[in-house]
Amino acid sequence: MGDTQDSPSGPSEVILCGTFTLVPGTGAPLSLILTRKELLIQTLSLDAQPSPHYSLALADCIGCRSFRGKDPTELGGYLTAAFCPLRGEALGKTIYRQRVSRTFRIEVSRDKEHNFNVAKTWANRIWEMAEDQGPPSSILPPSRRFLVLLNPFAGTGKASGHFQTHVIPTLTEANATFTLLETERPKQAQELVRDEDLSGWDAIVVMAGDGLLFEVVNGLMERPDWACAIKKPLAVLPGGSGNALAASVSYYSGHKQASGTKLLNNCTFILCKGQPVHLDLVSLTTSSGRRIFSFLSFAWGLISDVDIESERYRFMGSARFSFGTFVRLTALRTYRGRLSYLPARTSPDSTPESDSHRHNLNSSTDTVNPNVLEDSLLVPLNEPVPPHWTTVTEDQFVLVLLLYQSHLGADLFTAPMVQSPGEGVMQLFYATSRISRASLLKLFLGMEKGSHMGESIPHITNVPVTAFRLEPLENVGIMTVDGESIPCCSLQGQIHKGLGRIISIPQGP
Ligand SMILES: Nc1ncnc2c1ncn2[C@@H]1O[C@H](COP(=O)(O)OP(=O)(O)OP(=O)(O)O)[C@@H](O)[C@H]1O
């Protein structure tokens, strides 16, 4: 059995090569070659036939560790490397991440400690090379500590089981630790993040639907130290029926559209390999003076009706939205209201509201309130919108939607133009009462793959905006913020670019 060799990094970029055996396995020798990009595994055979080989990309590596054999008489050094490569491409199916873990044994001498040290060198170099494949500035520590908030009743009620079978093994391989809290009632997560010291965790992970993350964001914004607390990195694992942010982050991180446990696998990989990036938050103020913080969407009309009315089809999982849409299309309603907005192009380009928050100049009293985030683009709701805003001339709507992420659901690729969670723009979509059922059907069918943006659908408008106001002329219809219903009322909102942070894998330069 040959010894392991350390090669200088030349054009071949071989970092290490050596002879191992696979565990468990037949004991047949394998050649392992570590390059800057991959781990090549080749069966060694004595006949002249070319040996089968395969490679694992280091960009997909989530962890690597070395250890000694348990039996004191066992001399080998051991190495386990875990990867989450993409699967399904060759079969033309949905491409998604699937965990692959390989353990190798090396015995280059009769000295157990020496063999262990060789395995350790390999594990360290593999991990070093794997880290080189990631984003340049690693903000999270290598051993990540997560607070996981899980809603056991989200979606079809499988979140706890999926966490055990799909998430824990991957977190373990990635050397991450976590504290799991299963929520027992609504608002528990909101109160917890509002009241607790969060410094013991590197990120707050929500395994649920968008509703639980909505609680977390609003809980953080209720803290006296909200400006600092809202910078705590958040992460999403899809466990509910509305998993729009999880689907969006998976898309931003370079994955094809997926749902169910495939999306969960993608998001678990992102949790292990990603970095905190800016997350836009929208501050909404209602006519009753309520302040709500939103990371995803505001909806009125068809979309919010479907979201809430389809609760009764919860057993269907995310399919409840498609089914609910078809049901609602048969009994279409219109809603009267005045819609105004500030087009994105006319507002000054704002930088992420990272470390220096502008605080509130409370316009009703003209006193500075340092404890409140300022909505600098808005005037009080009882005053007319500023003259440089646009007011839609029609006042009969079938739907009004403001979406700030790419997906409205795991299967609803509604805003394909959104490429990252912190662009500082809301995508306003509205349909007036003149829209036909056929056009709405075309819209919703197109949204499954995002193809609706390339089609001409009459009476649907899309405008990028940074602020909006909606004044219902009759207080009817359901309004939703991030999929959670609120009483129908006049309200307005503005985007705060990069106010929060979410773990994602940025693509491109
Ligand atoms: N243990 C619990 N029992 C009942 N409700 C809970 C519990 N924990 C959280 N909730 C509430 O459930 C709501 C929906 O949660 P979540 O978004 O996680 O699931 P979901 O199935 O995707 O729901 P939806 O599609 O309605 O948003 C949240 O508003 C949250 O307050």
TrEMBL record:
Highest taxon of the lineage: Eukaryota
Ranges where the DAGKc domain occurs: 141-288
Gene3D superfamilies for this protein: 2.60.200.40, Probable inorganic polyphosphate/atp-NAD kinase, domain 1
Main EC class the enzyme belongs to: transferase
Entry's Gene Ontology molecular function annotations: ATP binding; sphingosine kinase activity
UniProt keyword list: ATP-binding, Kinase, Membrane, Nucleotide-binding, Transferase
Subcellular location: Endomembrane system
Gene Ontology BP term (one): regulation of apoptotic process
Gene Ontology cellular-component annotations: cytoplasm; endomembrane system
Region (Disordered): 343-369
Principal localisation: membrane
Alphabetized InterPro entries for the sequence: ATP-NAD_kinase_N, Diacylglycerol_kinase_cat_dom, Lipid_Phosphate_FormReg, NAD/diacylglycerol_kinase_sf
EC number(s) from the headed UniProt entry: 2.7.1.91
Protein name: sphingosine kinase
Gene behind the chain: sphk1
